[in-house]
Specification:
By secondary structure, the chain is of the alpha/beta class. It has a single domain (2-229), classed as Aldolase class I (TIM Barrel). It contains ten helices and eight strands. It has helices at 15-22, 39-44, 68-74, 84-90, 94-107, 119-123, 127-142, 166-179, 192-199, 216-229; strands spanning 2-6, 29-33, 48-51, 78-81, 110-115, 148-152, 184-187, 206-209. It has an eight-stranded parallel beta barrel with strand order 1-2-3-4-5-6-7-8, surrounded by six helices. β7 (184-187), α9 and β8 (206-209) form a beta-alpha-beta unit. The structure holds phosphoenolpyruvate (PEP). The site of phosphoenolpyruvate has 14 residues, from β8.
Length: 231
Amino acid sequence: MIVAGNWKMFAGPDPRMLAERLAGVDGVDAIVCPPYTELAACVEAGLTTYAQNVHWEPEGAYTGEISAPMLLALGVRGALVGHSERRQYFGETDAAVARRARAALAAGLGVIACVGETQEERDSGDMETVLRVQLAVIREECGIDDGLVLAYEPVWAIGTGQVATPELAQEAHAFIKSLLDRPVLYGGSVKPGNAAELLAQPDVDGALVGGASLEIDSFLSICEAAARSRS
Ligand code: PEP
């Protein structure tokens, strides 16, 4: 069970306090994905720390980007790639996402690669096609790499409070694993009140949590639900 907290462009909780509280939770790999300015403090606090993105080149004229060797030098253990906010607001393509993932894995970082359909794509019956394409590109670049974890994040559920039903999440996760057999986290409005039933699904291997990871109590409660779900 993996529970990753995506702090997005928020300062997030105090890393030391979070680390102290997480030390009391067994049976779950908790990961934090803070903004770049908080990476060092999270690493120093002993938190398993991932960046929110990573470039495919080790260095170069890529203003605003950060590379895998730079993250490794800080003690960062991995990176998100392909978050829907990157795809939606910053024009990340499937090809760029897969390139980022491949370079990060090759450098020795873990990767959480996000996939998922928009409401429009779901309504028009294109959900499976969208997932097929997103995953095919990742699979082609990365293969079935041990460092790769996937996150199913239906775009309509991110930050909206509109969570997928456990049945819908299970169905999508099983479909994703049939295309690329790696652990799949569910992301999209996971909260303490809905985490247990989502995490009880056999193909839900953890959660990628946005808003609810900004408060220590709610993140802890989701981590505890994850630990209970496989005990
Ligand atoms: C996310 O940012 O990946 C996310 C799932 O956000 P939220 O939990 O707020 O929907």
